[in-house]
Structure formats: structure tokens, C-alpha cells
Amino acid sequence: TKIDLEVVRRSWGRPLPNQAMAIRDVFEVVKPGTVRFVREEAVRGVMTRLFEAVPEPGVDPGPGAALPDRMRAWVGSDGLLRRQVLMRGDEVLMDARFRITDRNPRIRPGQFRFEPPPDYQVQDLTESTLEALRSLAAGRT
């Protein structure tokens, strides 16, 4: 997925949350009552707590999209996400590991660039993110 934060920043006209801290907010997008503690486990030498939950789909992904039905999250004692795995059944859809080297980074536009492999479909969620922000601002959910 892709969200153009510069477009969101310009269109929204308000400060965005600190993205370095937003990494720990993964539990805000799971179905209520589905989070369960699994065990303590080390990730890249850092002790974490492994949790499992059922993700809540937030947007209409379109026909044929593989949506995860299970999410695993490894959270360090500092509250920051160290690893996240999204699964559908036993198939891993995404496995991301995070190393926290700077807790308050400043990433200039153009400093980070990622080109997905040519056979990957990028889902641009910029517009749906703006719609969600506008809905929240208007007091709707």
C-alpha cells in the first residue's frame, strides 16, 4: 500500500502524527476483543511480546484482493512495533521487521524511495486516508 504523506499534509492542512511513534498504533486497526497475548520472544536481540489479532479491513480493496484474516505483532517494552506479520490462513501476506535506530527521525521528501517489483500491484490509499481524516474532523466515524 502507498500513502503520499506530502499530499495528505498539503490537503489536510493540519499537523500529522509523528510517524516514528505511529508505528505502535497497529492495534487500532484490529477487531475489538480479538487481541491475545501469545508469548515473549526476541526479535533482532530485543525482547518483545507477541500478540495475535484479527485485522479490521478499513477500505474496499477491490475484487480479488487477498485480505489478511490474522495479524501477529511483536511489541518491545518501549511500546514500539518490532515485527508485524499479516496472514490469510497459513499464507504470509506481509512480514515486516523494524529496527528502531532513531526515535524521532526527520525524513525529507525524496530521501526515501521504494520501487516495488514490477509484478506487484500498489494500492494507493492517499485519497481514502484523506476521506477518513475529513470524516474524523467532522465527527463521523
Summarize the structure.
The chain has helices at residues 5-12, 19-22, 126-137; strands spanning 36-43, 46-53, 70-76, 81-88, 91-97. It is an alpha+beta fold. It has a five-stranded antiparallel β-sheet with strand order 1-2-3-4-5, with no helix packed on it.
Report low-confidence residues grouped into runs of 5 or more: 19-24
Instruction: Kindly provide the radius of gyration, computed on alpha-carbon positions and rounded to a whole number of angstroms.
Output: 16 Å
* Total beta strands: 5
**Strand percent estimate:** 25-35%
Mean pLDDT across residues: 76
Choose one word for the global shape: globular
Task: Please tally the helical runs, counting DSSP H or I stretches of 4 or more residues.
Answer: 3
Sheet with the most strands? 5 strands, antiparallel
Report how far apart the termini are: 22 Å
Helix and strand run: HHEEEEEH
Give the secondary structure arrangement, pairings included:
Layout: H1 5-12, H2 19-22, E1 36-43, E2 46-53, E3 70-76, E4 81-88, E5 91-97, H3 126-137
Antiparallel strand pairs: 1-2, 2-3, 3-4, 4-5
Helix pairs in contact: 1-3
Q: Could you walk me through the main structural features you see in this protein, from its secondary elements to its overall organization?
A:
This protein is of the alpha+beta class. Helix content is 17%, strand content 27%. It contains three helices and five strands; from the N terminus they run ααβββββα. It has helices at residues 5-12, 19-22, 126-137, and strands spanning 36-43, 46-53, 70-76, 81-88, 91-97. A five-stranded antiparallel sheet has the order 1-2-3-4-5, with no helix packed on it.
